[in-house]
Amino acid sequence: MPSILPEGDPAPADGTLPASAAVGAADRDLGVYVHVPFCTVRCGYCDFNTYTASEIRGVKQSDYAGQALDEIRFAGGVLDRAGVGARPVSTVFFGGGTPTLLPVGDLAAMLHGIRDTWGFAPGAEITTEANPDSVDARDLVALAEAGFTRVSFGMQSAVPEVLATLERTHDPARVPQVVRWAREAGLEVSLDVIYGSPGETADQWARTLDAVLAEEPGHVSAYALIVEQGTKLARQIKRGEVPEPSDDAQADFYDMADAAFTGAGYDWYEVSNFSRGAERRSRHNLAYWTSQDWWGVGPGAHSHVGGVRWWNVKHPAAYAGRIGEGISPAQARETLDDETRRVERVLLETRVVDGLPTEVLDAEGRRAVAGLIAEGLVDGRAAVAGRIVLTRPGRLLADAVVRRLLGD
Q1: Residue 294 φ then ψ, to 5°
Q2: Which residues is 357 bridged to in the sheet?
Q3: In 3D, which of 261, 280, 308, 90 has the Cα closest to residue 187?
Q4: Within 13 Å, how many C-alpha atoms sit on residue 157's CB side?
Q5: Number of domains into which the chain is organized
Q6: Among residues 95, 110, 334, 407, which one has the fewest Cβ atoms lying within 10 Å of its Cβ?
Q7: Which residues span the domain enclosing 172?
Q8: Secondary structure (3-state) at 75
Q9: Is residue 304 part of a domain?
């Protein structure tokens, strides 16, 4: 969730959705994202909408769960009035920030508010992110007892020097502990790692991959470090204090990750995501990539229902003010036209292993497919069967492939 919000059309104070949002709703899943915008330390590379205690004077973390519950109840009314609220929730994801900086009781209260508002579909996937140093064994047991099914640990690296560059505070030795505690509590485990940090070597990245595989998580997310403008890291690079990440090195690191994970029985299902079996894919993230419906709770959170997208005011104080007034916390919204929705399908579904139906492409995009196959970027057999599926080289150049499919 980038910290800079887009512009858009005015959002109604009562949250009313247009009638078009209900079209086809029965065929779409409903998810809920809860943004917890608090962190102990702001990492130098982070561009997310997060705040340390010193940055949010006048806003209490202890008030946040109540504010989020008010938005959840508000959301229930909006979706009911729009005719799209009868579906139970398929996935819930608590992200941040560091959700587990809040007491488990607060996380449980918000989760139970979601359940009371919509109910949960059978087998609902309910995830929270956590830093390895933000939970202990008792916390993880309490999360499982509250209804969470999955925890995603921000491991980032197994190498202390790389963690220091990223300004991550946990000890790498903590990761095996929290993974074991999570498993003992009955939670599925995902590990998130970042590659291509300034100065990171191939040997250091290999150490991280080995450490990930040693824990045998059901799911792994491996993201290339992106230097976002306005971050501390961007300023350090501009001043020459740390080297700029190398595109070539990041490509090599991705190849290393793909080979390591594939060799250990993991399958890629999205460019940056791998799982041991389809049942361990992040269904919440897949809902984003396949344009399902979700309500985003919290400051700066984004929502999407039936081609209507909106985003909440960014600052926790502004969010609290709107919630206190009983009005929508949305700053602005947009209603996507058919062409925009088609373009977004190309952008998103090209990245997933199931691929993009070729029928979604326009004439120019279809003409580009043969060249992409010849260059080894798109799987030829899948294309003959009517789907655009990226090869491993294609995944490295996913953005370029998408541009050609869109005729850019």
Answers
A1: -150, 150
A2: 387
A3: 280
A4: 26
A5: 2
A6: 407
A7: 19-289
A8: helix
A9: no
Task: Compute the C-alpha angle 60/33/324, nearest 5°.
Answer: 40
Q: Dig out the tokens for 294 from the structure.
A: 């979700």
Q: At 377, list the tokens.
A: 């970027």
Query: Minimal CA–CA distance to 286: which of 23, 25, 89, 29?
Result: 29
Q: Are strands 150-156 and 188-195 parallel, antiparallel or unpaired?
A: parallel
31 and 111 part of one domain: yes
**What is the value of pTM for the model shown?**
0.95
pLDDT in tens, 147-206: 999 999 999 999 999 999 888 889 999 999 999 999 999 999 999 999 999 999 999 999
Is residue 372 in some structural domain? yes
- State the Cα angle at 100 between 99 and 102, rounded to 5°: 85
N- to C-terminal Cα separation, the chain: 26
Distance CA 136, CA 147 (A): 17
Residue 302 lies in a domain: no
**Helix, strand, coil content of the chain in percent (nearest 5):** 45, 20, 35
Query: 18-48, pLDDT tens digit by residue?
Result: 999 999 999 999 999 999 999 887 777 777 7
Beta bridge partners of 120: 89
Residue 2 has pLDDT above 60, yes or no: no
Same domain, 222 and 132: yes
Q: Residue 28: which CATH number? A: 3.20.20.70
Closest Cα to residue 397, out of 277, 178, 248?
248
Q: Are 266 and 358 members of one domain?
A: no
Domain end among 267, 289, 311: 289
Single out the residue of 116, 78, 111, 79 nearest to residue 327, CA to CA: 78
Residue 15 gets the label, from left (phi > 0), alpha (psi -120 to 50) or beta, of left
